[in-house]
Amino acid sequence: FVSAQATIGADVYVGAFSFIGEGAEVAAGAKIMQQVYVGKNVKIGARTIIYPGVRILHDCEIGSDCIIHSNVVIGSDGFGFAPQKEGHYEKIAQNGRVVVEDWVEIGANCAIDRATMGATYLRRGVKLDNLVHIAHNVEVGENTVIAAQTGVSGSTRIDKQCVIAGQVGFAGHVYVAPGSQ
Questions:
Q1: Which of 29, 85, 95, 101 has the fewest Cβ atoms nearer than 10 Å?
Q2: End-to-end alpha carbon distance in the chain
Q3: In angstroms, how far is CA 148 from the centroid of its own chain?
C-alpha cells in the first residue's frame, strides 16, 4: 500500500505487502523490499536499500545510500518512565524522532529509539552490526562502527571515528571521545 499523499521518486522499487504512509517521501532509486512499514512523514534518501521486515515509524529520516537489514525497528519509543509515589511508573511521552544520515548501514534486528524530545542521531558513515540497541537521544558520531550485542543507554554521545567491540554496554549520559576504541 502506497498512500496517495506519499511522494515516490523515479526508479523506486516497493516490494509486496509493504506500506508507505501519508506524507512519506522516498527518493529516486531507493529499494523497499517486502513487508516493510514506512510510517507517516518518513523521509528515505536516494539509493537506500531497506530489507524485508523493517519498520520505520513516523517522522523519522533515513539518508541516501544507506542499507537497513531485516527486522530493524527505527523510531520506537525510548524507555522513559517516571516513578510515582504510589509505586507505579508513568510513561513519559517520546515525541522526538530518529535521523539516520547518509552512508549508514544498520545490521539485522537492531532497535533505534526515537528521542524524548529532539532527535536520536546516527551520523554519516556509521556502521552497526546485528543486534545493537541505540536508546533515546543518543548521538553516534560520523564513521563510528559498533559490533553486535552492544547497548547504548539514553543521551549518550559517541563522537566520530570510534570502534566499539561486541557486547559493550554504555551507561546513560556519557560522552565518548573521538577515535576511542
A1: 85
A2: 44
A3: 16
Whole-number Å distance between alpha carbons of 178 and 143: 10
The helix (run of H) or strand (run of E) holding residue 89 is: strand 89-91
Which residues neighbour 108 within 8 Å (Cβ) at sequence distance 6 or greater?
51, 69, 70, 71, 72, 130, 131
Q: Which of 58, 69, 133, 136 is catalytic?
A: 136
Beta-bridge mates of residue 145: 127, 163
In this structure, how many other beta carbons lie within 10 angstroms of the beta carbon of residue 56?
28
Q: What is the mean pLDDT of residues 119-124?
A: 98
- Give pLDDT tens digits for 74-86: 999 999 999 999 9
The CA distances from residue 109 to 106, 116, 160, in Å, are 9, 22, 23
**pLDDT for res 138:** 98
CA distances from 62 to 8, 67, 103, 118, 179 (A): 14, 10, 10, 16, 25
The rounded distance, in Å, linking the Cα atoms of 65 and 171 is 31
Active site (annotated) includes residue 136: yes
